[in-house]
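Troubleshooting log. The previous structure file for this entry was overwritten by mistake, so regenerating from the original sequence record. Sequence copied from the archived sheet and checked twice against the printout by T.R.
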Amino acid sequence: MFNTKQNVVIIGGGVIGCAIARELSRYNLKIVLVEKEPDVATGTTKANTALIHAGFNADPKTLKGQLNMKGNMIFDQIVKDLHIPFKRIGSLVVGVEGDDLSELEKLLNRGRENKVEGLQIVDQKWLRENEPALSDKAKAALWAPTAGIIGPWELTLALAENAEKNGVKIMLETEVEDILTGDGDVVGVKTNRGIIKTDYVINAAGLFADEISRMAGIDKVSITPRVGEYYVYDKDRDFNVNHIVFPIPTKISKGTIVTPTVDGNLMIGPTSDIVEKKSQLGTSREGLNKVFEGAKKLFPRISLKDTIRVFAGLRAADRTEDFVIEAAENVKGFINVAGIQSPGLSSAPSIAEMVVTILKDEGLALDMKDDFDPTRKKPIHFRELSLEEKAKLIQEDSRYGSIICRCEIVTYKEILDAIHDPVGARTVDGVKRRTRAGMGRCQSGFCGPKVITILAEELGLDPTEVRKELTDSYLLSYKVKELLGSKVMDND
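Regenerated output below.
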């Protein structure tokens, strides 16, 4: 597969794997990231609450507690370098009538142990002024101004693109079949596309991290999938929330969260239920009812009339309920980065830094590049531009004048760019994550067939070969010529 041995192979193209790849790309190393699906960010990364937690909830003795706040503070530079939408809107843990309000003091003290800045307990008057739709029964809340909202797939794509720009080889649809060892050392990774020789393997395989670990003869990791169900609201709605709002948490869950998204939607969820299968992503009436009732406890006026989508995501919970980030004791060169559930997104930058330190301690020579470029060119989002800027773009390239997705105002040219970027879209959902085509009120009712057509034309496929997301998720069994013709710029 490669003429020369690679220094590091990273398994998993979620936010953790891509953050590690970008951090390692600062050094003169041969690095490969392998992902079994057709795109990055297809697992836990794509389906979560999209929060950058302040860091007050986790026990300071755990890796979660140690890495959350540190990761939070790194985000300002990352989003600046990579042009990722990010808003520090702050979070509230709200105690309502009947709750044990002493829990707020406990969270405040824990947050101070974790060195979270700006924490304070606010009263009912503050809540009325700053979150007016909140329940009249809300008595007090823990206010954490450093919490924020972000697009997790946008972050992951940006990390992957920047890693690729700095020399990392990203191999999609590349499934790991075995970890090769000799005399107690890692020597390579066997994949469905051949063997990659390497001295170091980083296991960032999310839900499947325990299976990858066992391939190396390590039984320490044990992943239990835990499903979380959500509702998403349309941008155009009659109910607004200003902050990330939590109830007082339980031992196993932060409860139903009500939060704006960085793109202007509203999201409520999740549940937290153990499931048997790592592919069990269906929603349930019971789970969604639980989400809605939890949201109504905080915001009694909330309804379901402006919801546009439900979805579920799986968390990769290790039996320790903490992150597992360590070099294997019995297999030199194998590093587990497993059990990365909440606050994994918030901790991703600090997890990446920790992995680099572990690699150095394990003997990997780290020679900093002189030409490392931490930046990414800002993507063009037509919907965000002024009328003058839109007119100028259309004059320069008429393909900006063809609107493919009406709900989110996504142009033909933006979709072409998404497909032909260095880590380009190969699926309908890949286009969706990069451009938001299909994320609006009609949920692809208008733009879906057009996106399929563009993907087919640009990738040299028959429309029946275009996939929604995963390896075998084909959308069409036959081609309807009248619907899927080549006139993708005709929106009538």
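The chain is about 30% helix and 25% strand. Archived copy saved in two places this time.
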